[in-house]
Amino acid sequence: MPGLLLLLPLLSLGGASCCCASPGASAVLHPAAARSAPKPRQPPYAAPAYQTRYVTQKIDHFGFDEDGTFQQRYLVADQHWKKDNGATLFYTGNEGDITWFCNNTGFMWDVAEEFNAMLVFAEHRYYGESLPFGNKSYTAKNLNYLTSEQALADFAILIQYLKTTFPEAQNAPVIAIGGSYGGMLAAWFRMKYPHVVAGALAASAPIWQFENLVPCGTFYSIVTNDYKKSGQGCSESILSSWKAIERLSSTAEGLHWLSSALHLCSMLKTREDVLMLKSWLGETWVNLAMANYPYEADFLQPLPAWPIQVACKYLKNPKQPDKSLLQNIFQAVNVYYNHSGHASCLNISQTATGNLGQMGWFYQACTEMVMPMCADGISDMFEPQKWDFHAFSEECFKIWGVRPRPSWILSVYGGKNISSHSNIVFSNGGLDPWSGGGVTKNITDSLIAIMIPEGAHHLDLRSNSPYDPQSVLRARALEAHYMKQWIEEFRHKH
Amino acid sequence: MPGLLLLLPLLSLGGASCCCASPGASAVLHPAAARSAPKPRQPPYAAPAYQTRYVTQKIDHFGFDEDGTFQQRYLVADQHWKKDNGATLFYTGNEGDITWFCNNTGFMWDVAEEFNAMLVFAEHRYYGESLPFGNKSYTAKNLNYLTSEQALADFAILIQYLKTTFPEAQNAPVIAIGGSYGGMLAAWFRMKYPHVVAGALAASAPIWQFENLVPCGTFYSIVTNDYKKSGQGCSESILSSWKAIERLSSTAEGLHWLSSALHLCSMLKTREDVLMLKSWLGETWVNLAMANYPYEADFLQPLPAWPIQVACKYLKNPKQPDKSLLQNIFQAVNVYYNHSGHASCLNISQTATGNLGQMGWFYQACTEMVMPMCADGISDMFEPQKWDFHAFSEECFKIWGVRPRPSWILSVYGGKNISSHSNIVFSNGGLDPWSGGGVTKNITDSLIAIMIPEGAHHLDLRSNSPYDPQSVLRARALEAHYMKQWIEEFRHKH
């Protein structure tokens, strides 16, 4: 599937959040990481205690011919909930297993007591256990109900159901919280269901990464800047690597050498394999940028602190012979894939945690979530690649039998014309490539943008850490401030 | 279909609006009407000049498996449109042929010049010519895409399309206007697509006629009050008539007499026929209440001024022998069905203009638009009838293969919790039975309720008339005032 792979960076909107069940998991540190990392946070970080529950949802909220139902999973933690004046903090689950988000959204656990809050983590349909058609959910036909609109309707129905299950919550405010695609859902949830949620915290939510709302090159250019800032020669080395790979892969010997020097689990043989390798490398650089946190953490992979800096230590000299350059590329990539030191080989068919539902997200990218991306190799360190909607559409049709509708998200959620809405905080990390499609300036006095210059992908949703930069501490405090304001406003109304 | 018929009043949300192509159509006046009517408005009322256009719409906006399209009809009148500072007044078409609404929403034509406005009338999918599957649209399967959400998405797409077709309209404000179900759509359109419309005038829009938001008996009790106010003995006569019909229809001779005394086109034979007769009569009384305008008009039928008063002239004595009573009932019903004097017999299978799509509305009532109704024969003049959701659901399943979801509309549009929205005027007629489910009190300073005590069903959307009560003139002025305010606000933002 070469076409698909060329386009893969599109689909890696990554997961969510953060880190409170990542108790410095790896005992054996990669030497590179050991050099630069602040000490890993110490165990024990008890896995958060929550109950797993299920609610019956209509498979199709927007039509009546399909009247079937499925069980949507959600997690509840009510240790800090005060029935008389508590709030509900509601995580709008994204494209993956909800327990992963639950275990990794430390912010909610950190503020639960302050808000007397019940925490709810709702799993997004078609991910984790919430499969509308069980193990037949991923047929082209059955995927028809995998849309953001259906997911938002699930959330609305679930909250109504919770209010009957916990009658004390009947008149209590609910705040939506999400990161990445989950952050987009949180924002859209407040926009479309303001009667259900009093406000929304949309962390690293690229709601404008659609059509021509932002230049298609922004994303890769932010990634590139992260590398430029993390070590001299770093982005240039990566830029040089693409042609080096091309040169080496032009001979059978070169292919053999590449496979072995990069410790790949399976040998490169065809042109498609080489395209796949480059796509995998590109995605790796992107993922490092998303997970470029100031401390050791396990987001998409277990990583050292400031992993790009660690990787860039190997990438100081862009002007060396191809084989030397690529040996260094291997060292840099190894920071991402082998922080534990346990990996015996690298598998180019996977780049991130298996907790994310890559196939589901691919379908969503092929339908609603059409995020144009491009690179030019000049303002960024990637191989030039135009945004080719036609080719993308053909690929989608071939695989899923659907055609993407690139302007639908703007039609339904308003694009940049969202000033009539209220009570949304959009937070963005300055290091996060997705910040390019995010809301980075206040729109009104209740549509607030918060910038975290030293933050990668929704750093603010992670647990407090001694290594947190001031900017994220300020961001979390401001987020809590607005959340309290929404709660007060809600109480005043009711 | 006796069950269906018992429930028919549910479905008669009537059409829309009013009167500028109803040029005193009937030359031959019914004697009763001639006595009390103000002089009919004089011709010529030129039929409004508009262009008929079509836009391509996705059959399914909310799923990608069905990728087909259809042609949605819309009408455009741009005689008064000023490209530099005009607005678009956009009629959110309801359950019928859009030309009927266009020809009968005089208010928009009356204010077009004042607003330098382009008028657009958008046809609702599955009605008129806008049939997603052509003449196969009304199969149970193909009706799946007949929902309010799909209709709103059509409107949003159409407006975006218009902005590319008329580039001068790109940055011009659009105001949604609708009456009855169209008024509900106008309000919901502003709620869900505030980036598309600057505000909405929702005339006689019973957005709260769902679940238990209002008592199920309100509707019939308002109808009854209209009759109580219109003549002594009137509502009591109607109340007495139900038992009189029961008694007469218990014998073959009585059935024969009834058929002939009421001038029915086909003889009453079975128990079902009698139930159908009563249902038809009930709906007739309801329709008279909806169309109880202060001047001769052609809304659901050509009618004299204050038609209930005219009908009530025949219904002064509730305590007469059954046959006398029913002969008077015939005279009263004749006011509705035979104002022209041309009808040779009365057809109990139809009560209103054929321009309304009764089957489509029935499907909508069987899915989303579940409006509980009941009567008790005490606070109203109707036969006692409980709201029987179960029976209704069975009927829907039998006929369409679908089950109604009575709480969905509340989940998706917020029920009474709509205070986060803005820029909607809800107007209500005090005589209109649908006002019971309408918004009759201000919610915020931009969610405004206007009452028109002397108004029937969206009198305010009709053309100005010398016979208009002061209250409707004030209402129209206030509506124009708010519309101007929304336009200014929009211009200020852009």
Automatic annotation (TrEMBL), chains A, B:
<dbReference type="GO" id="GO:0003085">
    <property type="term" value="P:negative regulation of systemic arterial blood pressure"/>
</dbReference>
<dbReference type="GO" id="GO:0008239">
    <property type="term" value="F:dipeptidyl-peptidase activity"/>
</dbReference>
<dbReference type="GO" id="GO:0002353">
    <property type="term" value="P:plasma kallikrein-kinin cascade"/>
</dbReference>
<feature type="signal peptide">
    <location>
        <begin position="1"/>
        <end position="18"/>
    </location>
</feature>
<dbReference type="GO" id="GO:0005764">
    <property type="term" value="C:lysosome"/>
</dbReference>
<keyword id="KW-1015">Disulfide bond</keyword>
<dbReference type="GO" id="GO:0005506">
    <property type="term" value="F:iron ion binding"/>
</dbReference>
<dbReference type="InterPro" id="IPR029058">
    <property type="entry name" value="AB_hydrolase_fold"/>
</dbReference>
<keyword id="KW-0865">Zymogen</keyword>
<dbReference type="InterPro" id="IPR002057">
    <property type="entry name" value="Isopenicillin-N_synth_CS"/>
</dbReference>
<keyword id="KW-0408">Iron</keyword>
<comment type="similarity">
    <text>Belongs to the iron/ascorbate-dependent oxidoreductase family.</text>
</comment>
<dbReference type="GO" id="GO:0004181">
    <property type="term" value="F:metallocarboxypeptidase activity"/>
</dbReference>
<dbReference type="GO" id="GO:0005576">
    <property type="term" value="C:extracellular region"/>
</dbReference>
<comment type="subunit">
    <text>Homodimer.</text>
</comment>
<keyword id="KW-0645">Protease</keyword>
<keyword id="KW-0458">Lysosome</keyword>
<keyword id="KW-0325">Glycoprotein</keyword>
<dbReference type="GO" id="GO:0043535">
    <property type="term" value="P:regulation of blood vessel endothelial cell migration"/>
</dbReference>
<dbReference type="GO" id="GO:0016491">
    <property type="term" value="F:oxidoreductase activity"/>
</dbReference>
<dbReference type="GO" id="GO:0060055">
    <property type="term" value="P:angiogenesis involved in wound healing"/>
</dbReference>
<dbReference type="GO" id="GO:0045178">
    <property type="term" value="C:basal part of cell"/>
</dbReference>
<comment type="function">
    <text>Cleaves C-terminal amino acids linked to proline in peptides such as angiotensin II, III and des-Arg9-bradykinin. This cleavage occurs at acidic pH, but enzymatic activity is retained with some substrates at neutral pH.</text>
</comment>
<protein>
    <recommendedName>
        <fullName>Lysosomal Pro-X carboxypeptidase</fullName>
        <ecNumber>3.4.16.2</ecNumber>
    </recommendedName>
</protein>
<dbReference type="GO" id="GO:0097009">
    <property type="term" value="P:energy homeostasis"/>
</dbReference>
<dbReference type="GO" id="GO:0002003">
    <property type="term" value="P:angiotensin maturation"/>
</dbReference>
<comment type="similarity">
    <text>Belongs to the peptidase S28 family.</text>
</comment>
<dbReference type="GO" id="GO:0004185">
    <property type="term" value="F:serine-type carboxypeptidase activity"/>
</dbReference>
<dbReference type="GO" id="GO:0002155">
    <property type="term" value="P:regulation of thyroid hormone receptor signaling pathway"/>
</dbReference>
<dbReference type="InterPro" id="IPR042269">
    <property type="entry name" value="Ser_carbopepase_S28_SKS"/>
</dbReference>
<keyword id="KW-0378">Hydrolase</keyword>
<dbReference type="Pfam" id="PF05577">
    <property type="entry name" value="Peptidase_S28"/>
</dbReference>
<dbReference type="InterPro" id="IPR008758">
    <property type="entry name" value="Peptidase_S28"/>
</dbReference>
<dbReference type="GO" id="GO:2000377">
    <property type="term" value="P:regulation of reactive oxygen species metabolic process"/>
</dbReference>
<dbReference type="GO" id="GO:0042593">
    <property type="term" value="P:glucose homeostasis"/>
</dbReference>
<keyword id="KW-0121">Carboxypeptidase</keyword>
<keyword id="KW-0560">Oxidoreductase</keyword>
<keyword id="KW-0732">Signal</keyword>
